[in-house]
Amino acid sequence: MKPDSPLYLHGLWGYPAPDEVLPSPAQGWSFLSGFAIRPLGEEPAPSARYLLDKLLESLPPQAFSAAPGAVYIGTARGEITPLLSLYDTWKVSPTEALRPFPETTAGALSTLVAERLSCTGPALTLSQTCISGIAALYQAYLYAAATKEPACFGAVEAPLHPLLIESFAHLRLCTRRKAFPFTLPFSENSVVLSEGVVLGFISPAHSPWQIERIALRISRGEGTTFTGLPEAAFSALLRSLSETPPQAVILHAPGTRKGDATELAAVEAVWGRLPALTLKPLIGHSVGASGLLSLLWAQWLLSQQVWLYNTETLRVSPPDWPTFPAHEPEGLVRHLRLETPLRRIAILGAGFGGGVAGVILQYAPL
Fold first, then answer.
1. What is the predicted pLDDT for the residue at 220?
2. What is the DSSP string of 247-296?
């Protein structure tokens, strides 16, 4: 979708952030049920609400200067850990478990953010598997375009519970690697589940960060399964995003051999062999929060005019694909050496159920 007047980002915050991860990418990983995970703290978060609380506490004062007209929060799994914990308690002591039960609903997450931001308009939680965060931005985009009021969007995921970890393992998606890097995209199933949380604001007021276009599609072709992605889905998404190729793309590519290849083939067919990377080897796969974390990292890459490169041990880009020239001859993070600055990045997402989504972020420094 592209509205009559441009819409811009006004603040975007989240974890894990580039400044925290890139100095020591091998740190922050752990194991649960024998599989690699990446929590935001030393231990998995007790709830999604806990992660939202921590992020809200860290926001600068200007984030609270004016109440947004609406709040949209994306999450694929919501409060899975508290819900299952209460179930275990209920089996022993029903009365004790039932009292806090309403707080485990997904809607409580958007309500929490709305209360903190003094928003009295719509406060909705959206769940559409791994594109939940981009779906939240999509709804905020629609709201801001229709009302000309600012809207808050975000995503949160605290999926590090043995049930979910082992369900991914049952699908043969989890990594079997026992040392960093745990995810090897484009070649083997090596998903690592992780935590993530992001909040941002969008409005018609001008800023350097324009959401040039956003698109979301659900493709359910004949004969496809819920866990399978129709091959035409990504191609249709890219064409609806932009006929003019962006300068670079941040892929969804969570470390699933077939899914990574499908996404990459679509990019090549529609936009050509652009510089492309995935963040999953650095921050894991935070399910519904992954798309907005890619947006957060895209903003950082644009503001710093840097790019991420493969190293001897770490793969973030497809093998044998072109990348940007850089001033440094080696290293994960390198400063770009371009005649035309990097100004336009596409962010892609995909999920179970045939959902695909994308955003084009344009940077125009004031």
1. 66
2. SEEE----S-HHHHHHHHHHHHHHT-S--EE-SHHHH-B-GGGHHHHHHH
